[in-house]
């Protein structure tokens, strides 16, 4: 099953990381449709979890992320993100 999910990810990722594919509505929809086409028969949240776990255990090792994720106006909330990270580190 993990092989099928990894193959669906590779077919639809458009150069992005597994994390981006999971959280991006368009990429995730394409990924989920590919999973259906290749007969992955588990629920959508489970497919996303398996993709993230595949990354964590090294099943996607060596696959480079070509496209970086960035957002317009990042500087407007970067300070708040830094505060949140520091808070969570304690």
Number of structurally distinct domains: 1
Radius of gyration: 15 Å
Euclidean distance between termini CA atoms: 38 Å
Q: Which quaternary structure do these chains form?
A: single chain
Globally, the shape reads elongated
For the biggest sheet, the summary is: none
The beta-strand count equals 0
Estimate percent helicity. Answer: 55-70%
* Residue share in β-strands: under 5%
The unreliable regions are none
Mean pLDDT: 92
The helix-and-strand class reads mainly alpha
Describe this structure in words.
The chain is mostly helical and 90 residues long. It has one domain. It is 66% helix and 0% strand. The chain is built from five helices and no strands. It has helices spanning 2-12, 18-23, 25-37, 44-56, 74-89. Helix 1 (2-12) packs across helix 4 (44-56). The mean pLDDT is 92.
List keywords for this structure.
66% helix; elongated; single chain; 90 residues; mainly alpha; 5 helices
Topology:
Layout lengths: L1 H11 L5 H6 L1 H13 L6 H13 L17 H16 L1
Helix pairs in contact: 1-3, 1-4
Gist of the model:
Helices cover 66% and strands 0% of the residues. It is mostly helical.
